[in-house]
Design a protein that fits this description.
30% of the residues lie in helices and 34% in strands. It contains 5 helices and 8 strands. Strands 1-2-3-4 form a 4-stranded antiparallel sheet. Strands 5-6-8-7 form a 4-stranded mixed sheet. The radius of gyration is 18 Å and the shape is elongated.
Length: 172
């Protein structure tokens, strides 16, 4: 999320729904035996263009999920959603994961799997074609998907950036 056109969002006036993407059990071997802890990746969104992800680690699953939700609420970003889909095709690579998202016609649904689906549903996108290539590591997939969504620009933001009217954006 190193893009300059990313808009941070305040959590105070949003109704956020959280989705658990993955839970990982981690074992630490000590002199006294094995110690188990859990890490949880959580995606939160208002299903209306706002999404964030977070990672929580704790000795209990519920605590890890709660920490993940709190972390996700600190990293909310605004995504342009037009008529239930995205404005244009976007590809992004994070670590070993590469994602490709394309706009789709109404009635298509969310054609995506696992971690990508959780992020896209949390944003509120209804019709999209998505493909993940490379690593299926949920950490990297979530980060790549959110970063790809942050790179999206709608026509209004392009017109504002160039300092021209909306009609000039489409007519050249």
């Amino acid at each position: 999320m190193s893009n300059t056109n990313v808009k941070k969002v305040r959590t105070s006036d949003l109704e956020l729904k959280d989705r658990l993407v993955a839970i990982n059990r981690v074992t630490k071997v000590t002199k006294g035996g094995r110690t188990f802890s859990f890490s949880a990746i959580v995606v939160v969104g208002n299903e209306n263009g706002v999404v964030g992800y977070g990672l929580g680690k704790a000795s209990e699953v519920t605590s890890a999920i709660a920490k993940g939700v709190e972390d996700a609420k600190k990293n909310l970003v605004k995504i342009p959603v037009i008529n239930g889909t995205i404005p244009h095709k976007q590809e992004y690579r994070f670590g070993g994961s590469e994602v490709m998202i394309r706009p789709a016609a109404p009635g298509t649904g969310i054609i995506a799997g696992g971690a990508m689906r959780a992020v896209l549903e949390s944003v509120g996108i209804k019709n999209v074609l998505a493909k993940s290539k490379g690593s299926s590591n949920p950490h990297n997939l979530v980060k790549a998907t959110v970063s790809a969504l942050c790179e999206l620009r709608d026509a209004h933001s392009v017109a504002q950036l160039r300092g021209i009217s909306m009609t000039k954006v489409f007519n050249g």
